[in-house]
Amino acid sequence: MKMYGVTKVYASGAEALRGVDLSIDKGEFVFVVGPSGAGKSTLLAMVYRGMVPTQGQVWVAGRNIVRLRWREVPLFRRRIGVVFQDFKLLPDRSVYDNVAFAMEVIEASRRDIAKRVPLALDMVGLAHKAQAMPGELAGGEQQRAAIARAIVNDPLIVIADEPTGNLDPDTSMDIMNLLCDINLRGTTVIMATHNQLVVDRLRRRVVHLEDGVVVRDELRGGYCLEA
């Protein structure tokens, strides 16, 4: 993934990103940190084509996705898994059906769905909760279900926007260990977070945003710049 001169100005005139240049290699695990309003969620949305920049280019898997036609966007998003802070599970569907939905929207065959959904649930430790409803799960279990949905299509990149924001410290580390396992399988993970404990403990690459500008890009960094 590469960004060149990415600027995003909203209709209100607010400038979320300013001239961002960023390169993330396949298989990296990158934390995006910074205060609220720094542009973290906007940067992540650029990667899965949730929005387009006002200026600049975003390249993913060898394509400038800014130039994608709208009909091409769903096909592109098959290669990206997204995990949100508030899980975004469908409350009237079982855990199995929530994960299967990610395959149904790309018109996967019933055979593939029946094969891959159980594998994804097993990977996140929820095989025994396949028929449970989201409201019957604890917060960490709901996030695991959301991660299963994000990985069931074997994406190149997993985008995680504050995935531990609603979880207690122990559950947060369980989720982080799961994301690390996914990363070890070769999937690129890009995660926006305010969780200093997680960032300081894992010591992965840290991209720090302030007022829409990258002010620090550090390998094996902590949440804050060390003196």
Description:
There is one protein chain. A hairpin with a 2-residue loop joins strand 4 and strand 5 (63-64). This protein has 7 helices and 10 strands. The chain is of the alpha/beta class. The mean pLDDT is 95. The relative contact order is 0.19. Strands 6-7-8-3-9-10 form a 6-stranded mixed β-sheet, sandwiched between helices.
Structural descriptors:
single chain; about 230 residues; alpha/beta; six-stranded mixed β-sheet; globular
Can you give me a brief rundown of this structure?
This protein is α/β, with parallel strands linked by helices and 227 residues long. The protein has helices at residues 40-47, 73-77, 95-104, 110-123, 139-151, 169-184, 196-202; strands at 2-9, 15-23, 29-33, 55-60, 63-64, 80-84, 157-161, 188-192, 205-210, 213-218. It contains seven helices and ten strands.
